[in-house]
Design a protein that fits this description.
Helix content is 81%, strand content 0%. It contains four helices and no strands. Helix 1 packs across helix 2 (38-60) and helix 2 (38-60) crosses helix 4. 26% of the residues are buried.
Amino acid sequence: MNLHSLIMYYLLAVNVVAFAAFGIDKYKAKRGLWRISEATLLLLAVVGGSIGALLGMRIWHHKTQHAKFRYGLPLIILAQIALIYYLHP
C-alpha cells in the first residue's frame, strides 16, 4: 500500500469519526448526558475531519448557532485547502 492510499484511508476514517461525533453529541445533548467537548469536535476537524464535521453539523443540526463552528469549520476547510495547494508540487 502506498502513501497516497494510506492518506486517503486516514482521511476517510477521521471524517467518518467526526461526522459520528457530531451525531453522538447531539443525541447526548437531547438526553442531558455527558457530552463530547467542543475542543474535541474542533480537533477532529483540524486533524483532517473537517468535511465530516461540517456535514455532521448540517445534517444533525448541531452547533449551528455557535460562531466557532459556524465560521470556524469553513475556515478550517479553507486553511486545509490552502495547505494542500501549498504542499502539492
